[in-house]
Amino acid sequence: MDKIMIKKSFITCLFVFIIYLSFSNVLDTVAEEYTEAGIERSLITFAISRSLNGVISVAQGTEVALSPAGVGLTFTPGQILDPVNDLIERFSWVVMVSGSSLGIQRLFLEITSSMFVSGVLSILVLLCVLNIWDIFDKYKIKFIPVSIINKSFVLLVFIRFSVPIIALLNEGLYLSYLQPQFDEAQTQLENASSQIKQINESSRNKVDVKDESILNQVGQWMDQTKQSLDVEQQMNSLKQAASDMSYQVVNLIVVFVVQTIIFPLLFLWLMIQGAKGVIRNISV
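^ that's the sequence the OP posted. Answer follows.
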């Protein structure tokens, strides 16, 4: 068997493999699982962000009134969390956009994996195989120009497999580089939410001076002085929690923007450039 026959046989086997992938939906099934996992991550993160928003809103309406040594003091812990609350509200929109992007990918995945697309691709593959084995020339069949058939085939292969390949590459990079950052940020935000809840609950405890005896007044004054020191400690904890939350929210924004916007667009651009290169070679 000469080199030309080997080349034709290899290309024919490649075409058969493409048809197998198209009808078996092997890539589509895995890509759909990855896309669903991404949507689930978006929903979980959105729920955490809204929960944090609610906890911070409660903290913003909390005031702690103390009067050690007869001096009135009022603390508003929620003011420390104002910038973080604004950041979390914007972050929730980022998560919504990311989830919508994954939902659109899933929709395109369902459309491109339909039997209609696979059927049209099979017809084009058959025409390409007939052309490779010179059937049209042998029997002098005048059909659509070969260049149009080949270009249509490349375009349809791009449409059929671009979305699942992008989903697979995207998830692979997420598991390799972004998942540790995502897991850590999510855990830290959940811990911060619990910490703020505890601070909210402790901030509701107030000391009322009602007993007129000197001994009891001294005791309650000492309790209020101790409470004021506790509030100062809570304020420092709240500031640290606010700083940690801001850092982790920024990390999550990076994860979602990279995974659902930058990576898909980058892979799509690379695949488009590859398809253009193949079509240019066909035209030559």
